[in-house]
Amino acid sequence: MTTSVREWFKSNPLYEQPKWRSVFNSILNTGVRFSGTDKVKWLAGFSNVPSISKSTPLKEHMFMMHDMFHQLFPVQCTGSYTEQDRIQFKKSAMAGEVVVLYITEFLYAEALLEAKPEYASEINERKSTNLHRLLQSNGYSGEGVLDALDNLLYEYEFYPSFAGTIEVEEWINHYWPMLEFDRHYNDINWSLLKEHSWQPMDTHEYSNDLNHKELGVEFFRRFQAIQDTHVSLSEPKRRWKMRQRLACIPDFYGWRG
Question: How far apart are CA 65 and CA 59, in angstroms?
Fold first, then answer.
């Protein structure tokens, strides 16, 4: 990827829509950059975004947008490496995955389809589209959708009226293995962070008393607030965060993901 993240966002079909530009500016204000390679030692909110080669430009775009949205929800870690810190790290990592899936595959894909109807065929082939329409047709939106996805991905259960539907089965078969992969490697990576006494930039913003569902709701409300407040790009903040990232990117042998 030879362009900057800022120029990449400017070329986005949704850039002129205020609520999405606010999201893009918030991501830029985290100091994220492209890694310049297709491999990174991934840690949500700390790693830069890799350039991924997929079978179509839209698939590449959606994959990279997924990683961009993760920048808004860094894993929570104080650097104290207590048992409570480990639990908060895992809760935030997995809650972030559900929220980012919802934002990318449901909200962003829907907005992209509206702006670029020529993407209809490819977007409609994605596993999330049919599930989103099923939920919408049954009156689910916002936090209701988020709760439904969380139940499905982490508890392998769904509301009886949807059980066994092709939309649900496709979602499970596609995303469940990915989440299990993340869950396993989060344990390995936590051990590496602890072994090396890795110290994060300050991102411990949420109470330890929240369970993973409640934390996911807080993440999602933060996203909604960003869309409602029209965040501006702050060049001093962006550069400061860039410097923080350089000092915090994990670079440990054995890292997974």
Answer: 10
The position carrying tokens 């409609």 is 124
Query: Is residue 222 included in any domain, yes or no?
Result: yes
Cα(43)–Cα(49) distance, integer angstroms: 10
Domain ranges, residue 96: 5-68+81-248
Tokens 């996805």 correspond to 149
For residue 76, being part of any structural domain is answered with no
| The two three-digit tokens of residue 11, written as one number | 């070329």
Per-residue pLDDT of the chain (257 residues; tens, 9 = 90+): 557 999 999 999 999 999 999 999 999 999 999 887 767 788 888 888 887 788 899 999 999 999 999 999 999 888 889 999 999 998 899 899 999 999 999 999 999 999 999 999 999 888 788 888 888 888 888 898 888 888 877 765 655 566 678 888 888 788 888 888 888 888 888 899 999 998 887 666 788 888 888 999 999 999 999 999 989 999 999 998 888 887 777 788 778 76
Q: How many CB atoms lie within 10 A of CB 170?
A: 16
Contacts with 2 (C-beta within 8 Å, 6 or more apart), sequence order: none
Number of folded domains that form the chain: 1
Instruction: Determine the Cα–Cα distance for residues 221 and 234; give it in Å rounded to an integer.
Output: 22
Q: What global pTM score does this model have?
A: 0.93
In a domain, 158, yes or no: yes
Please check whether residue 146 lies inside any domain of the structure.
Answer: yes
Q: What is the DSSP letter of 11?
A: T
**CA distances from residue 221 to 6, 132, 146, 191, 218 in whole angstroms, order as listed:** 25, 19, 11, 30, 5
Query: Closest by alpha carbon to 58, among 104, 7, 4?
Result: 104
